[in-house]
Amino acid sequence: MTAIQSKDNARVRRWRKLLSDSSTRQNEGSVLLEGPHLVNDALARGTPLEAVLVRESASGDPAVNRIVRRSQVAPVILADRVFDAMSELESSGSIAAEIRLPKGHPDLSQVPGCVFLERIQDPGNLGTIIRSAAAFGIACIVTDTGCADPWSGKALRAAQGGHFHLEIGRSADIGGDMAQFQGTVIGTVPAGGGALHEIDLRGRIGWLFGSEGAGVSREMQGRCARLATVPMPGRTESLNVAAAAAICFYEASRQRAVAAGRTGKVCRYGA
């Protein structure tokens, strides 16, 4: 077994660009996952791995070798200093894997629930919303072109595998996509909307969340069937967008559970 020893190796340079550059990911249709958690989640959902990268000092680790055997892909061994130079993590992990980006766009006429995101610029917020949406069984997320890249390393780490439990689409016309959704689109605003718990959320619901600073734009508010506000008895002016999203998803799930006679439980969209 011979490890790649040079940081200037062509394959290493390409993997580094997949990690750091959104346009490279889009042009090549590939993304690099870092760490055993994400690689295992991809495998658990049946995602084929295009390449498996292993840190040289971890090549004898039983946990790493189990992932390699499960992937059925011959690993590429990288010298520790090469792995460190490629990685975005402060404390570099032991394994990484390349996968193909999902193709196509969610069929919004069929999905039971969806999240539309307008200009969410922080990849950590974006990933956290993906994680919460997956936790509550929402089928898809559509981001506009002003959003951070949902497949960036920071978004992937924040989502904790949520990417592999729903469909993710990117749209140059998110208003048009909202119109295709066969349900009620609710826009979230910090004030002036209907109280979240007073709105009937038991049906097919699409959520629209806006940027961290400006929120949902006036134009997009006008395309929503309703506007909703999370009542806040405290003194802060607004919630972080990812926190607000989690509250909205929970309230919809709670209402469906109560309607189904499952008080105290949570329900998936369409359940």
Topology overview:
Elements: H1 10-20, H2 22-28, E1 30-34, H3 36-44, E2 51-55, H4 62-71, E3 76-78, H5 80-86, E4 95-100, E5 113-117, H6 123-135, E6 140-144, H7 153-159, E7 167-171, H8 174-180, E8 184-188, E9 194-195, E10 205-209, H9 218-221, E11 226-229, H10 241-259
Parallel strand pairs: 2-3, 5-6, 5-10, 6-7, 8-10, 8-11, 9-11
Antiparallel strand pairs: 1-4, 2-4
Helix pairs in contact: 3-4, 6-7, 6-10
Task: Give a nutshell description of this structure.
The protein is an alpha/beta fold and 271 residues long. 35% of the residues lie in helices and 18% in strands. The chain folds into 2 domains: 10-100, 2-Layer Sandwich (60s Ribosomal Protein L30, Chain: A); 113-259, 3-Layer(aba) Sandwich (Alpha/beta knot), CATH 3.40.1280.10.
Largest sheet: 7 strands, parallel
Question: Which series of helices and strands comes N to C?
Answer: HHEHEHEHEEHEHEHEEEHEH
Radius of gyration: 20 Å
Class from secondary-structure proportions: alpha/beta
Q: For the record, what CATH class of the largest domain applies?
A: Alpha Beta
- Helix share, percent: 25-40%
Poorly predicted spans: none
Q: Order the strands across the largest sheet as they lie in space.
A: 7-6-5-10-8-11-9
Which second-level CATH architecture of the largest domain applies?
3-Layer(aba) Sandwich
- Determine the CATH superfamily of the largest domain: SPOUT methyltransferase, trefoil knot domain
CATH topology of the largest domain: Alpha/beta knot
User: Helical segment tally?
Assistant: 10
The overall strand count is: 11
Shape summary: elongated
Strand content: 15-25%
